Amino acid sequence: MCGAVAGYSIAQSESTGSAAESTTPPKYGTKADFKLAIKELKDALPRNGGVSTDQADLVIHGESPYHHHDGVDHSVVVYPETTEDVVKIVKIANKYKMPVVPYSGATSLEGQVGGYSGGCICVDMSEMDQILAIHEADADLVCQPGVGWMTINETLRSKGIPLFFPIDPGPSATIGGMVSTGCSGTNAVRYGTAKGEWFLNLTVVLPSGEVIKTRRRSRKSSAGFDLTKLFIGAEGTLGIITEVTLRLAPVLPTTVATVQFPNVSAAAEAVRQAINVAGVGASVQCVELVDNNFMAALNKFGTISRKYLEKDGLFFKFQGHSPAALKEVAKIVKGVCEKNGGSGFKLASGPAEADSMWDDRKNALTIGLSLYPDAKGWSTDVCVPVSKLPELVYETKKDIAAAQIPSMIVGHAGDGNFHALLLYKTEEELDVAKIVADRMVKRALALDGTCTGEHGVGIGKKKYLVDELGPGTVALMKKIKRTMDPLGLFNPGKVS
Ligand SMILES: Cc1cc2nc3c(=O)[nH]c(=O)nc-3n(C[C@H](O)[C@H](O)[C@H](O)COP(=O)(O)OP(=O)(O)OC[C@H]3O[C@@H](n4cnc5c(N)ncnc54)[C@H](O)[C@@H]3O)c2cc1C
Questions:
Q1: What is the number of the ligand 1 atom nearest to the C-alpha of 112?
Q2: What's the pLDDT band for 4 if we cut at 50, 70, 90?
Q3: 189 with 415: CB under 8 angstroms?
Q4: Can you give the pLDDT at residue 459?
Q5: Domain check: are 391 and 311 in the same one?
Q6: Which of 218, 250, 282 is the last residue of a domain?
């Protein structure tokens, strides 16, 4: 399938990222120390299932079917039920100088939850999955970090509370991991990202074992530094989050439309205009860019009876206070699309069809993987200013065509954020995917964008941080890390 791989001649430039500051590597405990640590963990969490050294558990927690990075097994997996349990674990980690890797939904895509090669404790937060309080009058909710965003929304719906949590990454993602990756999703066009104001207050166990709250429940606070933000995107390197207060948004009526274009550049330009020019931006909840390869895969492998034109296109989700308002927005956006060469604009006939059309887009990863049976998928993520998206997508499509690598492009185009899913089976194909992904990142940086719009840094994007942020900024991150975690215990080797 990847016939031209050997002859693929796009030059791969060396990463220009260099260490922002050289530091002495942390000195961890010995194997004998770690054995004692595991024994103490068993005493500290004596309930059945509180601590696992089962080989399958250690391997499963260190690997991920969702990314291309090599897995590293953990030495032990612990399942705390309370903040106090987490404190006990962290104190034992300090005593024996044993690294700690927080683990939540495990849907992160840049190797964030892999183990540490010298040995480490995986702190699986799945037993801390309770919604603790819903304050409908204040539109906020208090929960433990292991609860999923989808569970929160299902719970609110089943209780008849007309509120929802709008940050929507991978379906199995949980709140602790979402805070820690600084994630977002399709709703970011309208509601912003995890780095906005959606997480109000965090309870965090610091690397010393001390417990802090970052603020209180009030909607606003200008009391001092924003320490909530310090932990958003920290990927478990600065603390373990054990409780979260999050803000909710009112549920509004929505509908879905799709439209096709002669090419991705025309589609991306229509997005820019629909959001920024047409005066309906506030009613556009989501705009998802998909390419012809995705549409072909959807027609072939999707569970749908409707068939789409196999061209580059957009999925829109509109919101409005009434069906008439939704129709009006759709009419204006249809006009913008047609002006940019769009055709086949289809508005859902009602809520059921809207849901099923949206599912077509949401199932992109599964559908994309069907393009090359038994292949692994590398889902890359970059983001640029919206006006630069057409150029970025156009050049990336050219690269992918030259590489002849099975792939598809989907993206949260309304934010200038897009992903290429690159498929590979052999080492040779993986090498080609690496070149394409590297060029995509460097192109995004050249366009004043970022190496990751939402998936985070993990181990995969570390090498780009100095180029993107500058040595001073990365040095400051390292200084904060050293100050908070002088023993280097929390998720070593990740982020910076
Ligand atoms: C099909 C699919 C679709 C996706 N779509 C999107 C998307 O649209 N947008 C997007 O942003 N992402 C997307 N992702 C990526 C992923 O869902 C997000 O990165 C998500 O935020 C990770 O949450 P998680 O619970 O799975 O975290 P995990 O993968 O378990 O952990 C992520 C990081 O957080 C740390 N961590 C976990 N829990 C805690 C805690 N309690 N305290 C401190 N640190 C902690 C971990 O150590 C790790 O560094 C997608 C993934 C998949 C598989």
A1: 49
A2: very low
A3: yes
A4: 95
A5: yes
A6: 250
The CATH number of the domain holding residue 148 is 3.30.465.10
Better-predicted residue by pLDDT, 262 or 279: 262
Q: Are residues 164 and 92 in the same domain?
A: no
- Spatial separation of the C-alpha atoms in residues 3 and 8, rounded to whole Å: 9
Task: Kindly state whether residue 176 falls inside one of the protein's structural domains.
Answer: yes
346 and 403 both lie in a single domain: yes
367 pLDDT band, cuts 50/70/90, is confident
How many residues does the structure list for the chain? 496
Q: How many angstroms is it from 185 CA to the middle of ligand 1?
A: 11
Residues with beta carbon inside 6 Å of ligand 1?
A: 66, 101-109, 112-113, 125, 145, 169-170, 173-174, 176-178, 180-181, 183-185, 235-236, 240-241, 365, 454-456, 491, 494
Domain count, the chain: 3
* Nearest alpha carbon to residue 96 among 45, 52, 32: 32
Q: 345 is written with which tokens?
A: 């604009």
My answer on whether 291 and 408 are in the same domain is yes
Whether residue 86 is found in the same domain as residue 189: no
Residue whose CA is at the smallest distance from ligand 1 atom 15: 108
The answer to whether 17 and 467 have CB atoms below 8 angstroms apart is yes
pLDDT in tens, 16-42: 444 455 568 899 999 999 999 999 999
DSSP 249-276: EE---EEEEEEE-SSHHHHHHHHHHHHH
* Closest residue by CA, ligand 1 atom 7: 169
Query: Token digits for 220?
Result: 């606003």
Q: What domain range includes position 50? A: 31-126
Domain stops at, among 446, 470, 485: 446
CA of 366, closest atom in ligand 1: 1
What is the model's pLDDT at position 20? 52
DSSP secondary structure string, 466-485?
Answer: HHHH-HHHHHHHHHHHHHH-
pLDDT tens digits for range 61-113: 999 888 888 889 999 999 999 999 999 999 999 999 999 999 999 999 999 99
Phi and psi at 189, nearest 5°, equal -55, -45
